[in-house]
Amino acid sequence: MQYLVSAMEGPGFASPQEVLRTLEDMVLPLFEALKRLETGHQILAGGIPVGDRALVFIVEAASHDEVDRLVRNLPMWGLFKWDVMALQTFTGRAAQEREYVKKLTAAGV
User: Tell me, what DSSP letter sits at residue 77?
Assistant: First the structure.
């Protein structure tokens, strides 16, 4: 299954020292983890909305539990507001709609 994952409302900074510490200790390790997942084909696509403290990516996972573990194991997991949405394939949805069309046609609509 594929999931659209969004991380919003990333941390702000109170001082230049905090910026440096956060970038070195949290942000750069997060990007490295995301790059590894992308190289391993668990993240299919994604990126950073320009100028925002957010992330968006598509994950390939076998189950809701697997994507939950993946997200929870990311550096900075506790510092973002996360939204994970299961995606239905275009092919799967088209098959459902074809079935609906058949039922409507059979009902004389």
Answer: G
Split into its structural domains, the chain has a count of 1
Question: 50 φ, ψ to 5°?
Answer: -55, 130
Name the residue with tokens 């299954």.
1
Tokens of 19: 């910026």
Tens of pLDDT, residues 72-108: 999 989 889 999 999 999 999 999 999 999 999 999 8
Contact 56, 46 (CB under 8 A): yes
Rounded-to-10 torsion of CA 38, 93, 66, 33:
20
Domain hosting residue 12, numbered range: 2-106
- DSSP-derived secondary structure letter, 25: I
User: What 3-state DSSP class applies to 60?
Assistant: strand
Predicted TM-score (pTM) of this structure: 0.84
- CATH number where 96 lies: 3.30.70.1060
SS3 76: coil
